[in-house]
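Our consortium's second objective concerns turning raw sequence data into structural hypotheses that experimental partners can test. To show how far this objective has progressed, the report includes one record in full. It was chosen at random from the queue rather than selected for favorable results. The single chain below, 290 residues long, was entered without modification.
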Amino acid sequence: MRTFKFLTLIAIASILALPQLVLAKANVTGGPLKGDALMAQPTAAPLEQKRPDAPWIYLWYAPDGGYMDSGGFNTSGPKDLIKEGTGGKLTQVELSTKAGLLKTKTVKIDWGKNQMKGAKGDWTVISLGSKPEEPSKDDKPGRNMSSRYGLNDTGNFDTYQILVLDAPDDMKSIMSPAQDDYAQIWINGEKWHNDTKWTGHPTQVNFDIEVSLKKGANVLVYRCGEGGGHDYANLHFDDTTMKAVKIFPKAAKDKAGFFAEVDPILGGATAVKLQDKLPTTWAGIKAKKL
């Protein structure tokens, strides 16, 4: 009996010692955001959980430069910088849809005097490094936004980064961002998160947000505004989601590679599906017989 009790206590202790990621439950629910909540801070108490071993996502599709000298995100945050930079051809909300993402094949960004030096206004694939706190292009911890563009003196700037998540079915998911300083996140044309404060560390999560994913392609846009000092924009999902969905970019290194990966699920120009070909093929065979 004592042995059984001892083993039971060990089992309970093991469960309690599991990483917080496995046991995490959303502390922000009820989304997507509507009305006055679109620019409001979450009302939930911040979790302040550091998760160095979480399945952080490192490859993203993004503009090839940031919006510089923004005046701080309190100034730039209410502005739609995608709409501004594309002359209204695309908006940041539309960018988080399949149709909007496909527009980036031809629509470029021109932020004029705010365009980052050296940027061509095109889209590319960027890497946030091998670890959230250790960017691959910068030996300074927690600077994966500036390091992606080789910036030294960052100042105030905004960045956008995009994912496509291919879900096997409609599902609820828990989204966990870490940012410095200010984050806005849209999925499928709806805003799910607005956080006006930095999380304090590249692997620290303050809000686990319950979001809805649809079967097939889901487009996520993560905008982050930087106000000087360290800068980072990291994201992971719960274990179940990370195992169930396919996340793109997967291995792509540029825009062409990215769309080669996602066109089949976005329905882009290069997507070739067997079911689309069958009626035409059968019609051709029938016509020959007639």
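The partners drew two points from this record. The CA atoms of residues 86 and 107 lie 7 Å apart. Residues 1-23, 135-139, 271-290 have pLDDT under 50 and may be disordered. Both points have been shared with the crystallography group to help prioritize constructs.
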